[in-house]
TrEMBL record:
GO terms for molecular function: ATP binding; ATP hydrolysis activity; transmembrane transporter activity. SMART domains: AAA. InterPro entries: AAA+_ATPase, ABC_SmlMolc_Importer, ABC_transporter-like_ATP-bd, ABC_transporter-like_CS, Mo/tungstate-bd_C_term_dom, P-loop_NTPase, Transp-assoc_OB_typ2. SUPFAM superfamilies: MOP-like, P-loop containing nucleoside triphosphate hydrolases. This is ABC transporter ATP-binding protein.
C-alpha cells in the first residue's frame, strides 16, 4: 500500500457569501510527504483540507492528485481518505464493522470485509479490540480505529483534520510519534491540519503556514524556524522577536531600522527604500545578557518579567522603543548571572540571528 500521490493545488479559492475563506492558494505537496497546514482559527486550513477531500467544492481553481484532475470528483472517487476531528465512529457498530464500513458501501462481501478490517486493526495494534463498541475504547484507541477506517480504502493521500486535538497532552505526544511512524511505513501522502506549531514542527516534512485565507510560507520546518518569511510567521511560530520600524540605511548586507522613539537595529537581508516600513526578526534563543552591546545588535533594557522553565529561563525586557522583547536563556547562562524584575540589563545577539522580513504586500 504505497501508491502515494502528489497533491497539486492550483489557484484555489473558496468564497462563502461575503467571506473569502481561501484566496487563490497554490501549493504542491510532494508524493509521500507529511504536510501540516498550520495557522490560527479561521485562517482557512480546514476549508483547504475539505476541498482536497471533495467535501467542499472549490469556488475557483483546480486540484490534482497525481496525474488526475479531481476538482469535480466526489470524495470516494478521488483516492483520498479523510479522518475527522471527532472520529465520527458509529456507536452501534463494533470496531471491525466501523473499520469495514466503506467496503460495505462498495458491496465487498462480508468475509473479505472482516478480513481486511482485521488487517487494518493489526496495523494500528487494535486487533484484540475488533468486537468492542467505540464507547468501550479510550480516546487514543478510538482515534486509531478512525485511522484504520480511513486507511482501509488504500488511499493515495490521507487527510487528517486536527487528529490529535481530543487527546490529553501525554497521549498527544505518543500518538503523534505513532502517526509519523505509520506515515513512513505506508509511504503515502499525509495532510494534517493543526493550530499547534509544536505538532507541525514534530511531524511535517512541509509546513504550510496560513493566515487570512492565504499561504504566508510553505517550507520544511527548519526553514520556517530559521528563515521565517513574514512578520506573521515569525510571530506565530513564537521563536522570534519582531521589531518594526523605518529603513534608515544599509551596510555590509545589513538593513538598519530606526524604531520610533527608540534605538536602531540591524537585520540580515535585502535593502529597503529609505524611510519605508520594515520588520526584522531576532531569534529569542540566541539572546545573551551581560556582554558589551555592538551597535544595532543589542540594547540595554529593563527586566519586566522572569519565567523559570526548567532547562531555560524566559526574560521579558523593555527598552529602546520596544515594549516586550523576549530572551530565552539556558538555565546555566541565567544562573551564572541572574537578574530580577526592574534590573537594567544589556542584551546582545549576533548578526546571523537576525533576518529582514518580507514586506506585507510582497
Ligand atoms: N460553511 C461555511 N459557511 C460560511 N463561512 C464559513 C463556512 N466554513 C468556514 N467558513 C469561514 O471561512 C473561514 C475559514 O474557516 P476554516 O474552518 O477553514 O478555518 P480554520 O483555519 O480551519 O479554523 P479552525 O482552526 O477554527 O477550524 C472562517 O472565517 C469561517 O468562518
Amino acid at each position: 500500500m504505497s501508491n502515494a500521490a502528489t497533491i497539486d493545488i492550483v489557484s484555489v479559492s473558496k468564497v462563502y457569501g461575503s467571506t473569502t475563506a481561501v484566496e487563490s492558494v497554490s501549493l504542491k505537496i510532494p508524493a509521500g510527504s507529511y504536510c501540516c497546514l498550520l495557522g490560527p482559527s479561521g485562517c482557512g486550513k480546514t476549508t483547504t483540507l475539505r476541498m482536497i477531500a471533495g467535501h467542499e467544492r472549490v469556488s475557483a481553481g483546480d486540484i490534482r492528485l497525481g496525474s488526475s484532475v479531481v476538482t469535480d470528483l466526489p470524495p470516494a472517487s478521488r483516492g483520498t481518505a479523510m479522518m475527522f476531528q471527532s472520529y465520527a465512529l458509529f456507536p452501534h457498530l463494533d470496531v471491525a464493522d466501523n473499520v469495514a464500513f466503506s467496503l460495505k458501501m462498495k458491496g465487498v462481501p462480508k468475509e473479505e470485509r472482516r478480513a481486511r478490517a482485521l488487517e487494518m486493526l493489526k496495523l494500528v495494534q487494535l486487533e484484540a479490540y475488533a468486537n468492542r463498541r467505540p464507547a468501550q475504547l479510550s480516546g487514543g484507541q478510538q482515534q486509531r480505529v478512525a485511522l484504520a477506517r480511513a486507511l482501509i480504502t488504500n488511499p493515495e493521500a490521507l487527510l487528517l483534520d486536527e487528529p490529535l486535538s481530543a487527546l490529553d497532552p501525554f497521549l498527544k505526544v505518543r500518538v503523534r510519534a505513532e502517526l509519523k511512524k505509520l506515515q513512513r511505513s505506508l509511504g503515502i501522502t499525509f495532510v494534517h491540519v493543526t493550530h499547534s506549531q509544536e505538532e507541525a514542527m514534530a511531524l511535517a516534512d512541509l509546513i504550510v503556514v496560513m493566515n487570512d485565507g492565504r499561504i504566508e510560507q510553505a517550507a520544511p520546518p527548519r526553514d520556517i524556524f530559521e528563515r521565517p518569511a513574514t512578520a506573521f510567521v515569525a510571530r506565530f511560530m513564537g521563536d522570534h522577536n519582531v521589531i518594526s520600524g523605518k529603513a534608515a540605511g544599509y551596510a555590509d548586507g545589513m538593513l538598519l531600522l530606526d524604531v520610533a522613539g527608540g534605538g536602531t537595529f540591524a537585520g540580515t537581508g535585502p535593502a529597503r527604500e529609505h524611510g519605508s516600513s520594515a520588520d526584522i526578526a531576532i531569534r529569542t534563543d540566541r539572546v545573551r545578557i551581560g556582554e558589551p552591546v555592538q551597535p544595532g545588535l543589542g540594547f540595554t533594557g529593563i527586566v519586566q518579567n522572569v519565567e523559570y522553565r526548567g532547562s531555560s529561563v524566559k526574560l521579558s525586557v523593555s527598552g529602546a522603543g520596544i515594549s516586550d522583547f523576549t530572551g530565552i536563556l539556558s538555565d546555566a547562562d541565567f544562573f551564572a548571572n541572574p537578574v530580577k524584575i526592574g534590573d537594567a540589563v544589556p542584551l546582545c545577539w549576533e548578526a546571523q540571528d537576525t533576518i529582514v522580513l518580507q514586506p506585507l504586500d510582497a
